[in-house]
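Recap quiz, item 2
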Amino acid sequence: MTPDATRRRAIGQILLLAAGFLVLVAISASSVILVNQARKDNGLVVHTVEVENQINTLLLEIRRAESGVRGYLLTRGPEFLSDHQAAVAATLPAVEKLARLTADNPVQTENTGKLRSAVEARLDQFAKEMNFLKQNQPEGAVALVREAAASNTSGAIRDVALAMRDEEERLFAVRADNADRTQRLASLVTIAGSGLVIALAGISIFLVRRSARARDEAEALLRDNNINLETTVDQRTADLREANNEIQRFAYIVSHDLRSPLVNIMGFTSELEELRADIFRRIASLSRAAGPVSPLPVVTGDAEPALDGEDRQLSQDFSEALSFIKSSIAKMDRLITAILNLTREGRREFEPVPIDTRELIEGIVATVAHQAAEAQARIRIEALPNIISDRLALEQIFSNLIDNAVKYLKPGVPGDISVRGRTRLGFAIFEIVDNGRGIDPRDHQRIFDLFRRAGAQDKPGQGIGLAHVRALVRRLGGTMSVQSELNSGSTFTITLPIAWTASNRNRDT
Amino acid sequence: MSQPVTIIMIEDDEGHARLIERNIRRSGVNNAILPFSNGTAAMNYLFGKDGSGLDRKGEALLILLDLNLPDMTGIEILRRVKENKYLKCAPVVVLTTTDDSQEIKRCYELGCNVYITKPVNYESFANAIRQLGLFFSVIQVPPAAI
């Protein structure tokens, strides 16, 4: 998965969550609004019912007043009178209340106005009837009752009340409808919103699961890669070790097999040398016998007979050729021995032991004390850290370097060689500093190569020491370097792990 | 000595063989020297046709052995010789170019009597062989018998 895709996916998830949140907010807001709306609608419905109720109450009061008048007219019972009076007293407040209730509706207000005038007219009639009755003129009252029953006052009240009731019923239908719709809308919004939220949650879960799966796959891939990498490294290491072993075996066998012919060359060259002595002795005696009287005394034994002129030249050439052959053989033998020793060293197993470095260096210095005295050199040992390493390897490393320092001093200048050490980050750093002839920076690499030397070739050596030292230092898990200028001394720096274990580095490398 | 000692020289390099023989002679040893240039021929001679070593019964032998042979290692010959009931008393002198300490140890473990490294320096070589010759001239060798 590319980083770009990952970023896009993350942004997508955030957007999704934000959308879900917005939907929730919208649902909540619309729910609040719709619930409020529904309450208002329901309130209106209740209001309509209240108005209808009030109309009925008013009609009932009027009927009560009517029946009270009639009852009183028939029986003159005081209870009818009081009933009538209570009804009449309740009528107008009922009208007022109705007016108040329907103040919001112009149609009903108009109706209420009509109703009020009709009711007032009816109340007037009641008052007149009651007046007749109080003045004991029941005929007049009866006539009025008849008139009232015949007149349209009661009908008008009924009609208006009916109209109002119709109006309210219409309103009731409309408002109930409204309330219903609002509630439906509210539930619809809630359902849709919930559905949307569930859908968003589903998409979210899907995305999360997909990215989790992608992450798992990536992790598995990474794990596989790691395992592969380790296997590859192991394989390469094994290959390298194998190759190294191969080279060591090869070097060993070759150097070994080269020795056999060398023994022959050397042997028969020596035999030739003896033959040479015989031949020239014979030549000398022959030439003496053939020549004039010899002034020289007769030579006996193995001593070189005196030769003259061409014969002497011949003898010298012969000797020269033989000595070149012999010195070359000797050199070749030294090289082969050196290679053999190197391969043998390379195969030796190191054994880490705690080493008192100062004691080790003092021992080495004691062995070169004679050479140092000859070269007028002083060797100073400064504070040295103790380390855990292979004793023999360390001895070889330091004795080679100190030996070199003593060997390659500047002629005529008293030598000053110091060995010092310090530790840093788990490594011990040793420096062997001299004031000797120094090494040209161009030769800094070369001096570590096998059989290569640098500077004036006035000292015996095979060009093996530093190559050997570097190989040892590497096997001990360290590094070495040189800082030097021609004629201004050299500093060889060795960095070794303070605590070397065989596993620090593969034993065979 | 009831019987003159025969020196069996197993050496693949003819030059070496020549140099060794010459220097042994120079030390005044006149015993017969039987040279073999490979392991198989030497084994055939030492152990006879039937491979039992019975053919050499009663002979006094001294074996000069090189370790690096073309067809088999000298160590194998040494082991076989020292395991054979007729030949095990014959002194074996290992004379080779190898100076590996493991190799030397192994040869002595198998019963070699003397181990000499051939020095490249001819003077040392000649000296070693002549001293070996002197050693041959005084050494008592038992006949190969039970």
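The interface with chain A takes residues 13, 15-16, 19, 22, 68, 97-98, 100, 118-123, 125-126 of chain B (CB under 8 Å).
Strands of chain B lie at 6-10, 33-36, 61-65, 92-96, 114-117.
End of item.
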